[in-house]
Design a protein that fits this description.
The structure is a single chain. The protein has a two-stranded antiparallel sheet. The chain is globular and about 60 Å long. Strand 1 and strand 2 (about 115) form a beta hairpin. The protein is mainly α and about 425 residues long. The chain has 15 helices and 2 strands.
Amino acid sequence: MHSSIKNLLLCTLLLPGAAFAEDGLSGSNTAWILTSTALVLFMTLPGLALFYGGLVRTKNVLSVLMQCFAIGGIVTILWLVVGYSLAFGEGNAWIGDFSRVFMSGVGKETLSGDIPEALFMLFQMTFAIITPALIIGGFAERMKFSSMVIFSALWLLAVYVPVTHWVWGGGWLGEMGLYDFAGGTVVHITAGVAALVAALVLGPRRGFGTTAMPPHNMTMTVTGAGMLWVGWFGFNGGSALAANGDAAMAMLVTHISAATGAMTWMLIEWIKYGKPSVLGVVTGMVAGLGTITPASGFVGPGGALIIGLLAGSICYFATITLKQKLKIDDSLDVFPVHGVGGILGTFLAGVFSATSLGVFSGFGFADGIETMGGQVSVQLVGIAATVLFTAVMTWVLLKVTSILTSGLRVTEEQEVQGLDIHMHEERGYDL
């Protein structure tokens, strides 16, 4: 008996998780979040850069790639200096404190839960990078590079950081119990609303509505879209902050919604125009991804299927309405895809949330009808607060940026010439 106990203890010590039990670090969770962090950064660089780059005209492709890379650098520095501290420092219900400025007090052994805090900070940094990068689509092909740099920096600190604290950093929306697993409010509503405001403030591109402005390289766009789809597994699955069933289910529902959104958009175009477009199928996929994001940790496969169906259809008609009826030049459809998708997904997270996951679990009944009503109310408060705050602050920041840079837009001559040559003295293609 004594020998058996010794052997059992020896085997226990050899288990991967047990090796870290003493210091509280989970090796498996750390490995998964390391992987997820790389996947989320992969979404912006190169995923979003290629996706957006292919959608603009040849003369502006480098400007979009440059903007994505510049935002990656700017946000990294700001997040290190003060952004992370204000987003996740204890602070109050509205904003964090300065306890983590320049990562003060954080070493290799410092933990956030059961993963290194340095890794948690880095994982959250990748979310902070992609959010202002998404806004680029609202003013593509017409904003000065200097204006983009200043606006993105100000917007990160004045909009993204406070909303992040409200939802994930111990702020008032988190205390209310808002369901936002991976960024419906924090990422997609803020980016979508900001892009819409930017499109309205800057005005349409020269020739919008009268001159065809098709994507110059759909191969590049589809390549970027594929990277976004793969990277989104880290975006949503990594938001569980653990290698467990929550992460696995989040990844499953993410994939289901993306596929359903893509097929729904494709089918609508097929019926309406007689032919499905490649641009439509990748846009529907992104709509499905953005819409499932806030709900990915709270719904099952049944709910994901319906969310993807609604995302593909509602975001499609939102795109048509914005451009053809309202004549708003949100150049790369940021608001109808990410903004509308984020609003829809945040609302549906309260409707379809379920505690027991299965084929028919995502209809809001698993938690009880009475609970669903209260949760939907919280979701609506979160949506309204995020939309209003983002819209007002974005408008103010654009006006401030315009003063600082003597106008947001390039001149008409420069716009006709293209931002690549005017802003960077380079061309995307020299064939």
